[in-house]
Design brief:
Layout lengths: L13 H5 L10 H7 L5 H9 L6 H26 L8 H37 L16 H20 L3 H9 L3 H7 L4 H13 L2 H18 L7 H20 L7
């Protein structure tokens, strides 16, 4: 009888396990979920703030490119589907709203690899790994799993919002780390969603408080002509990276 076991999809790649940097310091997903974690909101923000200098230009440029690409795709799809040119009337308004929703979802889908790149810039910065603009364009090979992850996440959050709102709020926070888990740990869409949910649920209120505070900081920083966002937007993205590093660790970048 064969004693071979099937590979564990939650384990890091074999090359990472053999790397002296990763060995003993970066747990696989099962280990990370089992060991637990903790953080203080102010400590995490201070950790991220120390890494804003030297990375904010790259992060701001990446976010602008992501926004431009999504808006351009949305505009083109809007022309194709005729969004904005529907006839008047209640039925036409409903149809236009549905078309706008479809266009928004499709445009967002095209942007998932870029969004994953932004996430990874924040994560690599949090782990003191080299960051570069090329990270934005490094994840198109995983377009399909990223698309599935994003669509499933969107559908489940929308359903949750329809079910008394609170389930949707819970899932919108719980799924925050699903996209980077797909690209950094090569998890399947459902594995990534569940790993993110199980991890964040351990300290859901604290994570919610973290991003509520970050949202307030960004709102206040935007008051003087939006100038402060140059610092607070990179801060928020690196905070996601520090949270990811705290929970799962970060594998060394592939050579």
């Amino acid at each position: 009888m064969s004693t071979e076991t099937s590979p564990n999809p939650f384990a890091p790649p074999a090359s990472a396990l053999q790397d002296p940097i990763a060995s003993g310091t970066v747990p696989n997903i099962e280990e990370a979920l089992a060991r637990g974690y903790d953080f203080s909101i102010d400590g995490l923000i201070k950790d991220a703030w120390q890494r804003v200098s030297g990375s904010k230009g790259l992060i701001i440029a990446s976010v602008i490119i992501y926004g431009v690409i999504v808006q351009a795709v949305s505009f083109v799809l809007g022309l194709i589907f005729g969004v904005g040119y529907a006839a008047s009337g209640a039925e036409a308004s409903i149809g236009a709203a549905i078309l706008q929703l479809v266009v928004g979802i499709l445009a967002g889908a095209v942007g998932y690899p870029f969004l994953a790149g932004i996430n990874m810039i924040g994560i690599r910065r949090a782990a003191d790994q080299p960051i570069s603009f090329n990270e934005m364009f490094s994840h198109f090979g995983q377009f399909v799993p990223l698309l599935i992850t994003g669509l499933v996440m969107t559908v489940l959050v929308y359903i949750g919002l329809l079910l008394l709102v609170l389930p949707g709020i819970y899932l919108s926070i719980a799924y925050l780390l699903a996209i980077p888990l797909v690209v950094e740990r090569k998890l399947s869409p459902w594995q990534a969603l569940e790993a993110s949910r199980k991890a964040i649920t351990q300290h859901w209120l604290k994570v919610f408080g973290l991003f509520l505070l970050l949202g307030l900081i960004m709102l206040l920083s935007a008051i003087p002509l939006g100038i402060g966002v140059v610092w607070t937007l990179p801060l928020a993205i690196i905070c996601v990276g520090v949270l990811y590093r705290t929970i799962f660790g970060v594998l060394p970048p592939a050579n």
